Amino acid sequence: MIRIAIQSKGRLNEQSVELLKDAGVTIDEQKRKFLGRAANYPLEVLYLRDDDIPEVVADGSSDIGIVGLNEVAETGADVNIVRKLGFGRCRISLAVPKAVEYTSIEWFNGKTIATSYPNVLKRFFAEKGIDASIRVIKGSVEIAPAAGIADAIFDIVSSGGTLISNGLVEVERVFESEAVLIGGKNLTEEKKSILDSMLFRIDAVSNSRGKKYILMNLPSDKIDEAIRILPALRSPTVMPLAAEGWCSLHSVVKDIDLWEKVEKLKALGAEGILVLQLDKVIE
Ligand code: PRT
Ligand code: ZN
């Protein structure tokens, strides 16, 4: 049995549950309270506030966890970063009121900065040789400058909308974050082997994200050109069709390249192009 801590509600909850589900781990949502048990896998799920997840994994109360890298950095918890998960992307940035004439990081000398991430900020200022005072505020950090309790803020930015609507400008991107799978440093052999089997599944899910399966009919004499457009896992699959001079080509393509590649393939004479969802890619 292995225990995973995930956020009970909030921005990472849904995608954490989704990832487990895509990895074939079924958790009964009805029974979801503090501790849940997967129906078809040796896994217990502990639902916590995100701030608590790094520490419970570090002290062994939970074996693994899903949390923002920002929380791991802030708590300084002694855990392994087992996988970056590609969701919950954001950054922690320094932002100043837009009226400020900001020229360099030296501006922060002697200023007061409001933040919920004092440790990450302290480390950054120490590295840059900045002497500023840090005021810890939990929640609504962005209103601190307008309320006159700080000169600037150090907070999470995603789209940047919150900064704009509070008259602030992002001036230094300090820390890039995304959701990560963390693991304790003293897992037993049994737990390590369950974790390995989970990682095999999680990697298959991650590898399929942002990709599509594409297949089409193509004149056989265009295969070489088509293969140059469509580099696949190893190489695209080519199968002859009953119709003389035609074949069927199968491959995998990244979402961001999809339309550009489809246009090129059509120009080569591809017909009957099908684009399908990819569920898992097991390399
Ligand atoms: O209740 P609990 O303590 O579990 O949750 P929480 O309220 O502390 O955290 P939550 O659910 O807001 O965020 C969980 C994690 O999501 C964070 O630790 C980050 O790793 C990640 N994440 C990703 C974000 C954002 N994007 C984000 N945009 N966390 C917070 N924000 C907030 C930010 O604080 C700011 O107020 O959104 C605002 C900025 O967003 P933009 O899009 O306007 O720039
Ligand atoms: Zn929190």
What does this structure look like?
This protein has 283 residues and is an alpha/beta fold. It has 8 helices and 15 strands. It has helices at 13-22, 53-58, 69-75, 118-128, 161-165, 189-208, 223-229, 258-268, and strands spanning 2-7, 35-37, 43-48, 64-68, 80-84, 90-97, 112-115, 133-136, 152-157, 168-177, 179-183, 211-219, 237-240, 246-254, 271-277. The protein starts with a strand and ends in a 6-residue tail after the last strand. The site of zinc ion has 3 residues, from loops.
Features:
single chain, 6-stranded mixed β-sheet, 27% helix, Alpha-Beta Plaits, binds phosphoribosyl ATP, 283 residues, D-Maltodextrin-Binding Protein, domain 2, alpha/beta
Question: Secondary-structure blueprint of this entry?
Answer:
Layout: E1 2-7, H1 13-22, E2 35-37, E3 43-48, H2 53-58, E4 64-68, H3 69-75, E5 80-84, E6 90-97, E7 112-115, H4 118-128, E8 133-136, E9 152-157, H5 161-165, E10 168-177, E11 179-183, H6 189-208, E12 211-219, H7 223-229, E13 237-240, E14 246-254, H8 258-268, E15 271-277
Parallel strand pairs: 1-3, 1-4, 7-8, 7-9
Antiparallel strand pairs: 2-3, 4-11, 5-11, 6-9, 6-10, 12-14, 12-15, 13-14
